[in-house]
Amino acid sequence: MSTLLTLDEVERISVRMLTASGASALQAVPTARSIRDAEAEGIRSVGLSYLPTYCDHLVCGKVIGTAVPTVSAPRPAMVMVDAGFGFCHPAYEAGEAPLVDAARQCGVAVLAISHSYSAGVLGWFVDRLARQGLVALMFANSSATMAPFGGKLPFFGTNPIAWAAPRPNGPPVVADLSSSAVAWVTVNAAAEAGEPIPLGWALDADGNPTTDARAALAGTMAPSGGHKGSALALLVDVLAGGVTGSNFSHEASGFGGRVGGPPDVGQIVIAIDPVATAGPSFLERFEQDFTAMAAESAVRLPGDRRHADRAHANQSGVEVPDQLMAVLTQYAEHGAPA
Fold this sequence. Notes:
This protein has 338 residues and is an alpha+beta fold.
């Protein structure tokens, strides 16, 4: 059995859960919007299913619920936001307008978010920028769950990368991918469901490929494309951990459980105004490329599925299993357990 929730109801219960667990409205509202959008796009693993973990981390101190992001501009094309060990989403929203202004003025600008927490769905951020006519890239590091190529000990996070580009009509092209073969939350969901995982997703504690999700959680995620994914994960660590002055993946406390303080990871967002280089007709040029790619009937553009899911959810809401709904209601009424 399940409960049907509208997206407004998803957002409202998310705000209630976060505030009941100690988050201020400044921290709770932007984060709840990201949960709403993850649900709308069919990404429950970092939507309502993951929200209790956000709440647990408020209570145990991995996230500071009263944090107030501080914004600075160390260079004309550089925006810096110190998240203060709060959620990533309010920190991003504090820096978004200055980032867009800097990109319009300089042609390209960088937003560096330091002392942050999990960014959830990176597509959420770059989609917003593409809807303002910018080409956007984002890099976010996370706590160590993946061994470098050739190793067996966790060193990198799944360290995702996302990008988005605007279209003249309709939603942007949005790509969101991890440096690992699959996101950690996907393997965790399989372990909780008692389901196997495909070979190539992960390694067990001895460094051997495994289809056992629980053995994978005791081992490491596998890099996507072998040495290529490992190199991308290192790039993300250099940008999101190094450039922001935050922790590298191997230094960050875990995103799961309640052990350790704030992960203190970072995010880098790059925004490009194509008008500066390609002129005002850039949208038409982009569309020619996108149309050519999708000319074959079996080909879809990155982001097509998430946009279709969002349109459906806007009309029909989302179904939440009763077992999960009971947990959400408990958290909304009483907050996360101490």
